[in-house]
Amino acid sequence: MDINNDLWELSRIIFSYPAIDNHAHAFLREEYKDAYPLEGLISEAQGNGPLLRDSVHTLACYRATNQLAKLFGLGPNADWEAVKAHRSSISYEQLCKTCMEPTNIQCILIDDGLGGADKDKMYDYKWHDRVTHSPTKRIVRVEIVAEEHLKRAMDKQIAESNVTPGDLFKSFVREFSVALKASAVDPEVVGFKSIACYRTGLDVSTSQDPSAIERAVMTLLLVYVSKHDLRLADKPINDFIVNMTMRIAAECGKPVQFHTGLGDNDITLNLSSPSHLQPLIKAYPNTKVVLLHSSYPYTQEAGYLTAVYENVFLDFGEVFPFVSPDGQREILRQVLELAPTNKIMWSTDGHFWPESYYLGTLQARQALFEVLESSIRKWELTLPQAVGIVKRAFFENANRIYNLGLEPRVQ
């Protein structure tokens, strides 16, 4: 057996096989393409302050600079500012085409709940069909849906001042349930997503206290009356929303994605470990649970959960390009320590900029090649075994878990 031929074949397949991006977000509209600092490509730091500016001095940014400079045909000494200047000098159509064509992403599953008040700055999920070969599908962010329906219930309560907190909550539950079930039967929706990690942490209780929920509803109502704004971050209500989602998702067979690990400073880090989800996972064995973002820095805990619970799956995304090259390789090694390879899926967590999709794809393919190459050189994997891992991770697993019914468009 010629190991060099095997490695060449592995490289060919890894860098050409079509991919399903199982978790991403929308592009900014052309007129808003510079609405946010491009440094958000390589950092979760918020705003435009010192932390975001510091990100240009990370290994992640140096590597992204070099890769984008090469993609854009700039010189070998191009810096971050040169990359930014070039992207501003070309048409948005050209930028999207330049970034997306090399990725060979066949299908994107878009969580279109990102953006908040700035959501109108982003394209509708169907717009992204123009940059893929298979239709884009939706992931419904349940906390955003819940906020919309709770606002409606509160507006009604304000208009009818004799409504009790219990009546208010019952009205919300009825409408929210209808909305979730409508999404469950919508062929455009392939899954749900919870951001409980951001709001109250992943230690979601599986038991409900009606009196605690009613008190939380009353507190939210008082805030809403004074500020006319609503953000669900009250644990009794947030836990209720997650439990309802888990029940309905089980009925319709659609997965529930959970943000785990890596995020901005709105997260309580020690509550972002997927290990906190263990009681919820056990309580809903018929609900498919997808742990997003490699659960970094809790990747090993996530791998453990996929190994011992049939209904748990692990997405290895977002660490590309936020983490250094060595860090990415180590994360993939941790993913593969325990996780069955028929339960891992890749994503870009691409958002706002087409460059995020390009970097998320290129770096993931590079890291997976380097990890599998090492195993083949050590005679720990055969070429067919490694190729099987690649095809499952980039396409087959997501195709099966989200019931997409796609055929890989092999070039």
Automatic annotation (TrEMBL):
Q: Where in the numbering of this chain does the Amidohydrolase-related domain appear?
A: 234-404
InterPro entries in UniProt: Amidohydro-rel (IPR006680), Metal_Hydrolase (IPR032466)
UniProt GO molecular function: hydrolase activity
| UniProt-listed Pfam families | Amidohydro_2
Record's PANTHER family?
AMIDOHYDROLASE 2 FAMILY PROTEIN (PTHR43383:SF2), NODULIN 6 (PTHR43383)
The protein depicted here goes by the name Amidohydrolase-related domain-containing protein
Name the species this protein comes from: Polyporus arcularius HHB13444
**Which taxonomic lineage is given here?**
Eukaryota, Fungi, Dikarya, Basidiomycota, Agaricomycotina
